[in-house]
Specification:
The protein is of the alpha/beta class. Helices cover 33% and strands 20% of the residues.
């Protein structure tokens, strides 16, 4: 089974967990704030061994990811995860005031 790690389990992290579970991933999550989602396994620390086991790493927008993205080259944001699995036509507006 493919494994996915979500870093940050706020509202959008929970949505990512739901999507990845539906897509057949074994979902793990890391957050400093407690959360309770039955199908998601909590990761207490981000170690190299845990990161190396993951097929997909999703970083929530609320997480300060400047250092994480350098280390985790195969990581994506939640918007990119959603777009990858979108089956409809999409119109996107970008920019700081988008």
């Amino acid at each position: 089974m493919k494994k996915a790690l979500i870093i940050g389990m706020g509202v959008s992290g929970k949505g990512a967990a739901k999507l990845l579970t539906i897509k057949g991933y074994d979902v793990y999550a890391y957050d400093q704030v407690p959360f309770c989602i039955p199908q998601v396994k909590r990761v207490p620390i981000l170690s190299e061994s845990i990161l190396s086991e993951m097929n997909q790493i999703v970083i929530s927008p609320g997480v300060d990811n400047r250092l994480l993205r350098v280390k985790l080259k195969r990581s994506i944001g939640e918007a990119e995860l959603g777009i990858k699995h979108l089956q409809n036509t999409m119109i996107a507006i970008t920019g700081t005031n988008g």
